[in-house]
Amino acid sequence: MGKSFKIILLLFCLFLAKWMAAQNGQINIPRITSMPDQPSPYNMRDWKRVAMKYDSFIYDKNKSGQYLPLVSYTSNGINYPNQKQIRLHTYVGTKSPQNSEGINVLPSLVGAALSGQDIRNMYGLDRLVMAQDFFNKANGENLYLNNSSSGSGGDWWYDVMPNVYFYQLYDLFPEFNAEANDQFTTIADKFLTATQKMGGSATPWSQASMNYRAWNFKTMEGNANGVKEPEAAGTFGWLLYHAYKKTNQPEYLKGAEWSLEFLNSLNTNPSYELQLPYGVLAAAKMNAEIGTDYNVEKMVNWCFNRGPLRGWGTIVGKWGSMDVSGLVGEANDGGNDYAFLMNGMQQAAALVPMVRYDKKFAKAIGKWMVNLSNASRLFYPGFLPSAQQDGAVWSQSNDPDAVIAHEAMKQKLQNLSPFATGDALGGGWASTNLAIYGSSSVGYLGAIVKKTNVDKILELNLNATDFFSDASYPSYLYYNSYDTPKAVLLDVGNGQHDIYESISEKIISQNKTGQVSIIIPAKEAVMVVVTPTGGEIRYDKNKMLVNGVVVDFNQTQMPYTSAPRIKALESQNYLVEKGKTTRVYCTAVDVDSDTLQYFWNSDSGTINGEKEDIIWTAPNTTGTTEIKVIVKDSDGNIDSMKVTIDVVDIINIAPNIISLTANSRHINTNGTVSLFCDAVDENGDSLSYIWSSDQGTISGSGSSIQWLAPNMEGIYSIKVTVDDGKGLTNNRQILLLVKNFDDEGQLIAWYPCNGNAFDKSGNDHHGTAKGAILTADFDGKPVSSYYFNGGSQHIEVKNTPALNFQDGITLSLWCKPILTADKETFLLSHGSWQSRWKLSFTPSGNLRWTINTIAGIVDLDTDIVLKTDSVYHLSASYDGRTMMLFVNGKLNTFKIQTGKIRTTTLPLLIGQMLPTDANYNFKGIMDEIKIYDYALNPGEIEKLFEQGIISNVQNITLAGSISIYPNPADQSLFFDGTRMKDEVAFIRISNLMGVQLKEIEVKGKLKSSIDISGLSAGNYILYVKNLLKETIQSIQFIKS
Are residues 898 and 968 in the same domain? Predict the structure, then answer.
């Protein structure tokens, strides 16, 4: 052995020894430690190539074959009528081809862009702009949601993640458009307001309390129903921190801290779906960039360990002969695990860039990514035997490149392990379990993962999914799964470059161009940053910079102490009258010092106090005063901040609008409605009123005006601005429904609840009371309504084709609810929101009407909170264009919704959500339940309310029956009661609203002819009554 070679070998060994010592700072994640270093069998797909082929496949409207194409493009969007709209299927073989989901379309575009696809010009379409239709502008939500006309407040991940995906697109395309700029700040403002409503405050400082399932961003109210999703605090933090970085607005930073402080304060794993990893990235990034001190190690472990909320975590082990470690889903470790493709890819998108900001996790994340990237292939057809994949047949014929994956993979199904499958077939949502929405995150993985010249060693791009990052140099992570050192080749491109290795904090190569060999110690990781050769190195606390660009956020070469950081300096009031006081709060932290000193001063007035909050007394002169605080730690490090307060003679208070009302929320086209604004001014100022509308004509002035509706149907806004003449205003708007009702239909079911649950519409949709108890109605009549105890009591009606009408619907009922704040409770349900429709009470006491049509699922809530133990007449309707809710005969709220109502095989339920789920059962009394197959007009619903509890049906019996003929009838209707057991005394005819039109005495007659020539054409109900005028049977007929 030559002397020079020995020297080189010695130097190499010394280098490895130093490197290994440096690697001791790596943090082990036990769940990842349990994963194999080299999963077997190993078969790494070219994920970037898969992503590009996937994008080209799913967005090609000219594809042909079974269930193809998977996309269509409409001419007009809902929120942006001048822009086209993307309608991308959620599953192959979907039963809802016109539906399109934001959690599918938006990440598919992010992934395509990350992988190099031209989403602005490919196919001659600007898909980026088209995707803006998921911003729910028309309905006033002003957020990206899962559908183009959705309501927030049902499920946090469906509501929040579309906004995360939009932010990612906004970062990738800074030249997006002016509308996107407005959307960006509108979303940030909504999320900030939500954190404040959840308790986030700087006066004094307090974190938000975010243990909800969802948040209604329109009403700013939480949904605590069902399984909570506190992991959403992570995405709140991610979104608001990046809003701060983009706009430099400090309020957004406060919102991010309120959110992540809540997440950091949790003692149990909050993992639920896919929002937690984004919070981990935000926490690590904020620790590195601004000096927060979140427990990232705890959060990283949460991402991999099984959480208690739904058993969510990261899979470890072999299923059958396949290593599946690294996948994300239901990680029970009990033989029944269930992994989902999307979740693993989204977790990678967040945790890989996290390593840039906290390199202690480089080895763990590098090892996990080898496992995840390898096992993810098993979701795709062709990578398991066909018998272990339920979508293989379709894929072989239509997707030869296997770019569309199964939604999920079960550890064991039909005694086969593993088994690629999903939820769509079992749920009846699609004809296959091949999930577009799950596959749409493949572009994230394709942007991160690249194979190297050494098998089983991957090159992970740390910058690819680090959205809203500051300027950075190319940065890569490698993990060596071998027992010996390995050398991988890195192409650094043209020009001269130095290679900095972050874990050892060494420059390992200098003056390099083209391919560079990177040596990786056995079972270790390296993080390399490609920097300009000879760049100027400087240190700023925890950061090492080259030419002003951070290359290491966790440097240890240059000792430093952290400075205090003022999180907020806020005054309780920023407008103070002369001689009055206000409290000023300073919230400061220092990660390495417990002792802080506060030095306060002001231009004028007096300061009382010397701690973190003081009382400031305004001077006796008006003007502007600046209050400043300097915070100093024991090492002499300081931070400072100032606020400005205005001192005035008298504080003018803006007018207070008590209410803005219309004598009717509905009018016909060209109709007139009166509006009244009730406003007061605390200062006694004279008020003026400025009225405006988006269309129509306003007449009159002052607090009361008339509005002439336009000749076009729609939802219109009338706005009033109240001015006190001293520079302060207040405004409010009201939405009015301009609509002509001309639909016709039938009464499908009517349950007067008088003695039983029989249907009195004549359609034999008789109910079976399952525990529901007959009680007195609201007029005191005994056994004339049903009481439900909130347990398992309900009424079940067997499903029929007649109950599955699709064009329109009206529900009408009287009820006296006992409301509960901890869950949603169901009044009526036919397949619930999952399959068809339901009417329920939210935990906050709002009435909620949910319709599932071929266009999507939409919730409509009343804008008033109903009182418990109070009697209400409630009605809900839909006519294929508009959803409406009525309370006590008055139209309360309405919303655009389109499409035919979906059908279901489930029974109609009164007081319960689904036949197998009694967790949300109604408690209270219900009566006079009516179901129509069309939308009644508001005047007809008002009549239903005014009639009150009109039914006096008693002792309904199925033994014996009447017959009428002909039906339809023109001039005369013949009645035959020979088979009736009870004596018939009277016959009454009413319209479908219950209004009596004719009553005939037929005492002793078994047959009779009834003159109906005076009735208008339409649907009517004939009632047969006994001597006590109790209805003993009814039947529906048509007057031709």
Answer: no
